[in-house]
Design a protein that fits this description.
Blueprint (H helix, E strand, L loop, with lengths): L12 H6 L8 E4 L4 H13 L6 E4 L3 H9 L11 E4 L2 E4 H12 L1 H5 L8 H12 L2 H5 L19
Parallel strand pairs: 1-2
Antiparallel strand pairs: 1-3, 3-4
Length: about 150
């Protein structure tokens, strides 16, 4: 039997992960048990009227697979990750890219991209290490509302 006569192999986990986002339909990975992160996701959901973004907790199977696939630490849950096809943004760059895509007044905050990323990320990290103390920690990942549930990947 030649290669062309064989049936195609079933999709691998890597190809499943690769299909979860695109430049037009980015995926936001967030810490599902972080009070600040959950507020951020609610903020984005309220303003993303076109339904561009999809979401998954970093702790989820999809989140872990994406982190692993792109060589990112699977235990470091202090960052938000924006996945746009093969492009990955983390920390302040991810947050600014999300604000940019929301449009309106929020997109003007993208001007902070001009601040060098080491400076932006140092501020981001300052908040990230204190987020549980300031905003609380959830026992489990919160569930999205029924209207938003289709935009979440489990």
């Amino acid at each position: 039997m030649t290669q062309s006569e064989r049936s195609p192999a079933p999709p691998s986990r890597a190809s499943e992960v690769d299909g979860l986002s695109s430049a037009e339909r980015p995926l936001v990975l967030y810490d599902g048990v972080c009070g600040l992160c959950n507020r951020w996701i609610k903020f984005v959901l309220r303003r993303d009227r076109k339904g561009v973004f999809r979401f998954a907790p970093l702790q989820s199977a999809a989140g872990q697979a994406i982190l692993s696939r792109h060589g990112l630490p699977t235990k470091d849950l202090t960052t938000i990750v924006l996945v746009r096809g093969a492009r990955i943004d983390c920390y302040s760059t991810a947050a600014l890219q999300i604000l940019r895509r929301l449009g309106g007044v929020w997109s003007m905050l993208y001007a902070f991209i001009l601040v060098p990323s080491p400076v932006r990320d140092r501020i981001y990290e300052f908040v990230a290490v204190r987020r549980f103390r300031w905003f609380g920690r959830l026992d489990v990942c919160s569930l999205p509302s029924p209207e938003h549930r289709p935009r979440f990947i489990e």
